[in-house]
Design a protein that fits this description.
Strand content of chain A: 25-35%
Distance between the termini of chain A: 44 Å
Helix content of chain A: 25-40%
Oligomer: homodimer
Order of helices and strands of chain A: EHEHEHEEHEEEHEHHHHEEHEEEEH
Largest sheet of chain A: 5 strands, mixed, barrel
Structural class of chain A: alpha/beta
Shape of chain A: globular
Number of strands of chain A: 15
Number of helices of chain A: 11
Chain lengths: 359, 359
């Protein structure tokens, strides 16, 4: 029986422009299906089910996406799927959720999970989530680190106490948080063996998070403390006033780096992927002998390592390699997969051209 | 006033699979628009207008295309747009037209033109068509050769009498026809200066063509001679019986190579292009500074020499070069432009898969 003080907070406010043309303001990455078996946010909720029943899931998103998320998560009470009035990064979001849950259950313990990551080994993942919740219930702030597979410079790193054994369901002290490093530092981190990717998963009692905010982000803590109770009919209006005044800081930077009571679990082989671009989607597909993969009926002739996303269409790829092709009724992307992370720049270009119809 | 014994025969039976996915059985290359200002067959008729009014244009095509061609050429009498019961190459087609026109006008002189070529300088072209008709009227079989721009091995060549001056509106003797040569021969042809590309344009009196057929393809000549008159109500049924028995030969190979009375005009700079593949279409477009061109709203980022055909759609090309992208509602082609001539093989593949919906 899942412990009734445990709550899941799914952070689903991201826009995910790098998945254009499939991603749009109202169809951001977290509400898209890439791998079958549901959209990323549906999979996020599904994989937590053994620990967190849907009625203890809360979601923070934005006005563009809320209706779609309510539709995709019929098992989650719609009153627990909230739209932030503005995007204010993770510290105010977690603080808001802690404020709400604290008023519902003074022993509430939160697990915070990004809505748009992918985990191929959910059972192994859960073997870490349970001890993370337990340690959080005892008063720690707890993180899950991912064993680095390469000297990635696009992620933050968590420095665990040396000697940490990845995969062991046991919390160990966290010594420091490192922001996105340069390549040399990233290489040293990977070599050292006790630095892990920060996957944006955090655990703590609502009261612990609120206390840490008071210590390290007092302005935000005060603003949140003056909100009425969640069930009060003035809550929504007051929140719309207050939330934009909160500091635009991540929980890592604003709180975790400075807090004393931080511990963590180091994941080994849970198959975590942040699905950062079409390149990541392509890598996660089982391709044919030439490394070609498709979510479409595709003919590949003389080419390799292509990924095609065009459901309902026949796509013929002739003499081309290393391409990402994404087809929508109103827009088509053809990109070198090694440049897939630049798709966000295309979206910026569309913004400067005021192509609201395609955003 | 155009001479009333002159008739145009537009050969429009080709399938043009190399323009898939835009080309289909019922939408072959000749009925597609690539360059604005009408489809290829519309442009073919339009450019002949100063010499041949539409009521003296005849078209030979197939059952798949006839309705579309009737629609595209409202100025041509529908009774002059005929569907061959089977494809039998150019010699029987020209013989059939000669048989029909001979019975309408014993002095009929035909100019034969492929429906699917492109000519950027129609006025210069017409300066050759008029003397070609005149020489044909006097009893010659006349061809127009195109000054070769490269040692192309995909075309046949016409050997003119040495000393021929390209662009001069004067017929000169033709010494030989050469089938598609190997590269060394093609290079020698270009260097020699009196070898010209065979563009499939032929001129002759109906009686001259019929006489040449009697001399060199007697079986076909006899079959055609036994057809009833065109206006006889048994013509269509009899033609369906007879035509498939004709020899499947080109007029070049079956007649022109062997005939004695062959003369020609050598074209210099009429901008002729056989539009053999998407690569040719791409080359004929005015691109931007990076050589990118589009029949679509296109965004090109970090790439050059791409061609995009996707009317009504926004297409973003990111970090890719030398691609042909052709989008249709049911199918999409992404090809290396240097391999564009292999698109026909894709269509063969679709045939083996019985994808009639896409053919």
């Amino acid at each position: 029986m899942p412990h009734s003080n445990y709550y899941g907070l799914i952070l689903a406010g991201g826009r995910g422009t790098r998945f254009w043309p499939r991603s749009r303001r109202r169809r951001a990455k977290q509400v898209l299906e890439f791998f079958g078996a549901g959209t990323l946010i549906q999979q996020t909720v599904d994989r937590l089910k053994p620990v967190l029943p849907p009625d203890r899931i809360w979601v923070l998103t934005n006005d563009h996406l809320r209706a779609e998320i309510v539709r995709q998560l019929p098992q989650v009470p719609p009153g627990q799927i909230l739209a932030e009035p503005v995007a204010r990064n993770t510290a105010p979001a977690i603080g808001l959720a802690a404020h709400i849950l604290q008023s519902i259950n003074p022993d509430a313990t939160l697990g915070v999970f990004p809505a748009d990551h992918y985990i191929t080994q959910p059972a192994r993942f859960l073997r870490l989530v349970r001890p993370a919740f337990r340690a959080a219930g005892r008063g720690s702030l707890v993180v899950i680190g991912i064993r680095p597979r390469r000297p990635e410079t696009g992620f933050g790193y968590i420095e665990f106490a040396p000697g940490v054994k990845p995969g062991e369901p046991r919390v160990v002290p966290v010594l420091s948080f490192r922001e996105k490093p340069d390549l040399d530092s990233a290489k040293q981190f990977v070599e050292a063996g006790h630095f892990f990717w920060n996957a944006g998963m955090f655990f703590g009692r609502a009261s612990t998070f609120l206390g840490a905010l008071r210590d390290h982000m007092p302005r935000t803590a005060t603003l949140l403390a003056h909100l009425p109770e969640f069930r009060n009919r003035r809550f929504a209006a007051k929140m719309r006033e207050t939330f934009p005044l909160c500091e635009n800081l991540s929980i890592d930077y604003g709180v975790m780096e400075k807090a004393k009571n931080v511990a963590g679990l180091a994941a080994d082989d849970i198959g975590w992927n942040d699905v950062g671009s079409w390149e990541a989607v392509a890598e996660l597909q089982a391709g044919d002998e030439q490394g070609n993969a498709a979510r479409a009926e595709a003919l590949f002739m003389d080419g390799s390592r292509n990924y095609v996303d065009a459901p309902g269409k026949l796509v013929a790829m002739l003499g081309v390699s290393d391409l990402i092709v994404v087809d929508m009724p109103d827009a088509l992307l053809v990109a070198d997969r090694r440049q897939a992370q630049k798709v966000g720049k295309l979206v910026e270009l569309l913004e400067t051209r005021h192509r609201e119809d395609l955003l």
